[in-house]
């Protein structure tokens, strides 16, 4: 065993030894660099904003690198206690949380502010993957039921803050594990049926007025073009007026003249499509597709059920990010606060995201050590 | 070792297969969702590109209207009557100031701006956007401009804005003909909207309110220009994309001679009245002045209520009234026209005579219609009757003519109708006749009314302009020219002139030349008055010539041949045999003095009509004729135009003495 291990270790490349998956890293860096250009354009062409973003990207990359060094199977030990801690923190947020932008998302620890829901984005897939992978696949109904409950707890707590975007992402990360674990199609169809039955209940009792307004606005933004419909209308104008080749970098009138709101954060995709056009969008989506394909490749080639499920869930959730953001900005989905991953300006979610990629890299590179 | 046991029974390859299948399905789902995204974006960016391109442009591109310069107005000799002068206002852009309140205080102290104006600005600040300029002071003096310019660096966000405003250099001399411009009000806006002109006036602040400024508004205004600018979401201008300059309004050249106008003003000094001078050959109005007048410049910047009350105060003799288009009883001035009517109707001939015992009486009626000359003129023919303004002759004539003949002929001379002059203030006044009396007073016509009309009194008023026009027609022997102010319009025409005839490689050098192109204004004549017997013109004109030469001291020594007729209008009815005593009569009820004249007699070039209200002593000959003389003297200047035919120059012999003594004609 030792010899074989030794031989294999010899065969490893430099990148494998430092636990970096090169195709994934290239895709991530490509998007980050692209993002810097767009952030510069969208942020009023100030270099200060670009430097801040570079700092954040640097930190996030370091986090990714650090996470990649941890053997993925060791997550399992920590899954339950960290998950419970996460739930407690979420409850604490609801009780003592700091209110910002009309929602309680932050926990003030005295020396820093802390957003427990971000951590849950990672813990939930780990927890569910750990739980489900303890049993034979395809997972049984009883396993799935408990898994569902485990997903639902943090989802509801986060939805209550209210943070619809994050709770949606967390729910999907859990659901993806269940799906990949082989939940029967009968069950999936039933769940979709139940969910649609649940929708009116959600509408009547759980959604806040501003959330309802977002949905109404999504259905017909032109009914209030200067009010709630303004964002989406201006965003569609920005995208549409980009045309095939776009107006050129720094030349997007919708963004440069500030008609577009949230230009460098949630609506950065509109800036990108205005300035780089359909061609730019096709390139951007291709890069995302490449990352997703690499993530799925890593998942399929993972050695354990736990790592397979975890890698699959992280990758699919990453795609959900992309889909929800672009869908929202281009008017396919209602406005929920989800940034465009790796491109949007912003700190916390970037760190979480790259920690996720760190796990993918760990799964991809730690294989034969533990076997 | 439960864990090991579980691992032992696990089918790893089956699980891997299941996972791979599920991953593949998820990947298919991802592709489907990506396809949805990309097709939606394809729809936005490719299919609907033009729609969003347009919306994007309408977001950022705004058209700012640029007001055209108003056309200038000149007199017939090219002297400027209506100018555009820069007016300086102090403006503030709140957003660009450092310490708004403090600086407003300081700048107000520096330029002596009232508290009231500061308050107004603070109030405006609350409702207006902070990057829009707001006015702190509207009309800065040259001194204030200089003072501010020196200190401008201390007041960021404060600046001086220059705008062109109308200025009438001759002030009250021209107001009744030029009129004035003033701020566009709600009524004007509604009218502009109805005429679909609101877009053209988007940047215009003032509009013609009176006189020629109003009549020729559409010529003077010009065409709006546009500045195409890029704005941001706050509406702030980022840069100018395109500029379509406005086209200035056309300049007007009037027939008015400002010097003649000045003489008219001087001649009327201290009197209430009006002068109208027309060139009968073409209808050009040479002078039109109404006294007292007022300064139109007052209205350009918005007249203060104090000044406006002053203009309305009856004590100030109603300067707003344009007396040259107000109706006055024509009195004896129209006797030549009535004589012509008599000749044409065959009621009299040049030889016909009536006996004047000093009064006229209708058969079977008590009332005696008095002659102004109580002893009576004895036997008089038409010529003498006009010369001496014999009332009894014209009582008889009017009686024999009957009112319908008079109405018909006076209508032909333009009475009771608009003259067609190019100011809207033109009035119809009152045409004597059955219909007028019925429609205006709802009363039938009595024979007695006809008798009064015989001497230009009763149901008859004429405007000085109508009077001048009627005698222009007479002087023209029937030719009718529409009276007007506008002689010519001038506009800047831009031409591209090729420098080289040869076009080298498809490109030619082009020089852009702009020049003023003047166009004389054409007027159509009305159909002339055609008499049954053309000699009748001469008979009446002769009589007027004779009258001017013999009767009016005012025309003694003139170096041109004038013909004229005076009139003295009674404003209150006297009782039978009551004597008129000017001193005892209230000022506003005293007689009006009228005079109408033309010269030279043989080829008339100028017709002057004068009215002087409420004279204390004397009549038209004494009070109004000298005004006409001064205007005509100015008109003819050094020219000597006296007929060589001695017979046409009867000696001056005023049998009845100067009319100053008699108080009448």
Automatic annotation (TrEMBL), chain A:
Return the EC number: 2.4.99.28
What domain of life does the native source organism fall in? Bacteria
| Pathway note | Cell wall biogenesis; peptidoglycan biosynthesis
The molecular function terms of the Gene Ontology recorded here are:
lipid-linked peptidoglycan transporter activity; peptidoglycan glycosyltransferase activity
GO biological-process terms attached to the record:
cell division; cell wall organization; peptidoglycan biosynthetic process; regulation of cell shape
InterPro entries from the UniProt entry: Cell_cycle_FtsW-rel_CS (IPR018365), FtsW/RodA (IPR001182), RodA/MrdB (IPR011923)
Q: In which broad location class does this protein mainly occur, judging by the first location in its UniProt entry?
A: membrane
EC class (word) = transferase
* Membrane-spanning segments: 22-42, 54-72, 78-99, 141-159, 168-199, 276-297, 309-336, 342-363
- What cellular-component terms does GO give this entry? cell division site; plasma membrane
- Subcellular localization, as worded in the UniProt entry: Cell inner membrane; Membrane
- Please provide an example of a Pfam family that matches this protein in its UniProt record: FTSW_RODA_SPOVE
How this chain sits in the membrane, per its record, is:
Multi-pass membrane protein
Q: Does the keyword RNA-binding apply?
A: no
What NCBIfam families does the record tag this protein with? rodA_shape (TIGR02210)
* Protein name listed in UniProt: Peptidoglycan glycosyltransferase MrdB
TrEMBL record, chain B:
Q: In which residues is Zn(2+) bound?
A: 356, 371, 377, 390
* Spans traversing the lipid bilayer: 24-42
Its topology with respect to the membrane? Single-pass membrane protein
Its subcellular locations are: Cell inner membrane; Cell membrane; Membrane
Q: Where is the signal peptide?
A: none
Give an example GO cellular component term for this record. Answer: plasma membrane
**Annotated cofactor note:** Binds one Zn(2+) ion per subunit.
State the source organism's domain of life.
Answer: Bacteria
- List, for all copies, the residue spans of the domain called Penicillin-binding protein dimerisation: 66-241
This protein is called what? Peptidoglycan D,D-transpeptidase MrdA
**Lineage of this protein's species?**
Bacteria, Pseudomonadati, Pseudomonadota, Gammaproteobacteria, Alteromonadales
């Amino acid at each position: 065993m030792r010899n074989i291990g030794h031989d294999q270790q010899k065969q490893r490349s430099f990148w494998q030894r430092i636990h970096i998956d090169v195709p994934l890293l290239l895709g991530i860096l490509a998007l980050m660099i692209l993002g810097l250009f767009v952030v510069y354009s969208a942020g009023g062409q100030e270099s200060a904003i670009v430097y801040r973003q570079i700092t954040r990207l640097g930190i996030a990359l370091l986090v990714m690198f650090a996470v990649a060094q941890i053997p993925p199977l060791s997550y399992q030990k920590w899954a339950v206690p960290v998950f419970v801690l996460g739930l407690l923190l979420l409850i604490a947020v609801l009780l003592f949380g700091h209110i910002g932008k009309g929602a309680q998302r932050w926990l003030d620890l005295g020396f820093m502010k802390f957003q427990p829901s971000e951590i849950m984005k990672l813990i939930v897939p780990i927890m569910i993957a750990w739980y489900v992978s303890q049993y034979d696949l395809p997972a049984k109904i009883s396993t799935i039921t408990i898994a569902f409950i485990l997903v639902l707890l943090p989802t509801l707590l986060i939805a209550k803050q209210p943070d619809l975007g994050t709770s949606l992402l967390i729910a999907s990360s859990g659901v993806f594990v269940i799906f990949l674990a082989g939940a029967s199609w009968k069950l999936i169809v039933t769940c979709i049926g139940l969910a649609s039955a649940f929708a009116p209940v959600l509408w009547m009792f759980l959604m806040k007025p501003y959330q309802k307004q977002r949905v109404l606005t999504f259905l017909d933004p032109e009914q209030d073009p200067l009010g709630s419909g303004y964002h989406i209308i201006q965003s569609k104008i920005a995208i549409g007026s980009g045309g095939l080749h776009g107006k050129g970098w720094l030349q997007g009138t919708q963004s440069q003249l500030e008609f577009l709101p949230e230009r460098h954060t949630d609506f950065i995709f509109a800036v990108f499509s205005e300035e780089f056009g359909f061609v730019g969008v096709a390139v951007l989506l291709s890069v995302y597709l490449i990352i997703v394909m690499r993530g799925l490749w890593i998942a399929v080639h993972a050695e354990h059920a736990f790592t397979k499920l975890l890698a699959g869930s992280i990758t699919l959730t990453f795609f959900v990010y992309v889909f929800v953001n672009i869908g929202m900005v281009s008017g396919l989905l209602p406005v929920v606060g989800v940034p465009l991953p790796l491109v949007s300006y912003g700190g916390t979610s970037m760190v979480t995201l790259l920690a996720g990629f760190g796990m993918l890299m760990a799964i991809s590179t730690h294989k034969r050590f533990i076997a | 070792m439960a864990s090991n046991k579980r691992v032992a029974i696990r089918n790893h390859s089956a699980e891997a297969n299941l996972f791979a299948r599920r991953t593949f399905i998820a990947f298919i789902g991802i592709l489907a969702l990506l396809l949805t995204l990309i097709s939606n974006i394809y729809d936005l960016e490719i299919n609907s590109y033009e729609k969003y391109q347009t919306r994007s442009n309408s977001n950022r591109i705004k058209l700012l209207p640029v007001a055209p310069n108003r056309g200038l107005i000149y007199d017939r000799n090219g002297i400027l009557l209506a100018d555009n002068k820069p007016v300086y206002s102090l403006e503030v852009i709140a957003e660009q100031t450092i310490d708004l309140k403090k600086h407003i205080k300081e700048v107000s102290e520096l330029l002596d701006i009232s508290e009231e104006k500061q308050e107004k600005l603070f109030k405006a600040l609350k409702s207006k956007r902070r990057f829009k300029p707001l006015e702190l002071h509207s009309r800065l003096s040259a001194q204030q401009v200089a003072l501010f310019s020196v200190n401008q660096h201390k007041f960021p966000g404060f600046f001086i804005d220059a705008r062109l405003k109308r200025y009438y250099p001759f002030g009250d001399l021209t107001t009744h003909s030029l009129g004035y411009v003033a701020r566009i009000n709600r009524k004007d806006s509604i009218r502009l909207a109805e005429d679909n002109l609101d877009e053209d006036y988007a940047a215009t602040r003032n509009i013609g309110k009176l006189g020629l400024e109003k009549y020729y508004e559409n010529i003077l205004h010009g065409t709006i220009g546009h500045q195409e600018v890029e704005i941001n979401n706050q509406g702030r201008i980022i840069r100018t994309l395109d500029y379509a300059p406005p086209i200035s309004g056309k300049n007007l050249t009037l027939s008015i001679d400002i010097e003649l106008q000045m003489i008219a003003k001087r001649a009327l000094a201290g009197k209430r009245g009006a002068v109208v001078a027309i060139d009968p050959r073409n209808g050009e109005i040479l002078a039109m002045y109404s006294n007292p007048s007022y300064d139109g410049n007052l209205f350009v910047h918005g007249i203060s209520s104090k000044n406006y009350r002053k203009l309305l105060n009856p004590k100030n003799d109603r300067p707003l009234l344009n007396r040259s288009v107000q109706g006055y009883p024509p009195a004896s001035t129209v006797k030549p026209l009535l004589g012509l009517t008599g000749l044409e109707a065959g009621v009299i001939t040049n030889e016909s005579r009536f006996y004047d015992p000093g009064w006229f009486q209708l058969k079977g009626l008590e009332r005696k219609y008095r002659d102004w000359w109580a002893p009576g003129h004895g036997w008089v023919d038409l010529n003498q009757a006009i010369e001496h303004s014999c009332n009894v002759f014209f009582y008889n004539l009017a009686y024999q003519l009957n009112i319908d003949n008079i109405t018909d002929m006076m209508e032909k001379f333009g009475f009771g109708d608009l003259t067609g002059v190019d100011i809207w203030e033109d009035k119809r006044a009152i045409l004597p006749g059955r219909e007028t009396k019925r429609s205006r007073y709802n009363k039938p016509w009595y024979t007695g009314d006809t008798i009064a009309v015989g001497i230009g009194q009763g149901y008859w008023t004429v405007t000085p302009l109508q009077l001048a026009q009627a005698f222009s027609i007479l002087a023209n022997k029937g030719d009718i020219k529409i009276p007007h102010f506008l002689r010519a319009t001038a506009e800047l025409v831009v031409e591209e002139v090729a420098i080289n005839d040869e076009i080298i490689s498809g490109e030619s050098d082009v020089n852009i030349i702009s020049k003023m192109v003047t166009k004389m204004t054409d007027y159509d004549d009305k159909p002339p008055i055609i008499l049954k017997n053309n000699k009748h013109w001469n008979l009446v004109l002769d009589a007027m010539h004779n009258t001017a030469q013999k009767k009016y001291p005012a025309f003694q020594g003139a170096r041109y041949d004038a013909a004229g007729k005076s009139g003295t209008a009674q404003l209150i009815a006297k009782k039978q045999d009551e004597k008129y005593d000017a001193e005892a009569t209230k000022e506003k009820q005293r007689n009006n003095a009228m005079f109408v004249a033309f010269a030279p007699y043989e080829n008339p070039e100028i017709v002057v009509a004068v009215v002087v209200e409420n004279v204390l002593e004397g009549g038209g000959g004494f009070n109004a004729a000298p005004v006409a003389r001064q205007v005509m003297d100015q008109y003819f200047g050094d020219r000597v135009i006296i007929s060589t035919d001695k017979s046409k120059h009867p000696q001056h012999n005023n049998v009845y003495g100067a009319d100053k003594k008699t108080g009448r004609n």
